[in-house]
């Protein structure tokens, strides 16, 4: 279970090697961590929007792993119509955090969307 919790972070992959111990019934457990930069970012542009709120959309996001040293994950994503008009607009924001706790993963997510269309 601990390995699954550690390996859920894409920027830190942990492998395990179990070797025989010096006494019967004992083992030596070696964990090897392959760390990368703990931040991931993206930006995007597409035409997935509607005519009423702006066809072209901009988006971006940032993910951070292990900020508190507790195998925690944080993220924030956002989107906006690329035309930036007050009369036709869509905005979105998502943010969240997750933290392993024993066999469980505690998480909090926030999402907000706004649509504007003047006739």
TrEMBL record:
| Molecular-function GO term, any one | protein transmembrane transporter activity
- Give the Gene3D superfamilies listed for this entry: membrane protein fhac: a member of the omp85/tpsb transporter family
Q: Which GO terms describe its cellular component?
A: type V protein secretion system complex
Protein species of origin:
Pectobacterium carotovorum subsp. carotovorum (Erwinia carotovora subsp. carotovora)
Example GO BP: protein secretion by the type V secretion system
Which Pfam families does its entry note? Answer: ShlB (PF03865)
Q: What is this protein called?
A: HecB
Give the InterPro entries listed for this entry: Hemolysn_activator_HlyB_C, TPS_OM_transporter
Domain Haemolysin activator HlyB C-terminal intervals:
25-118
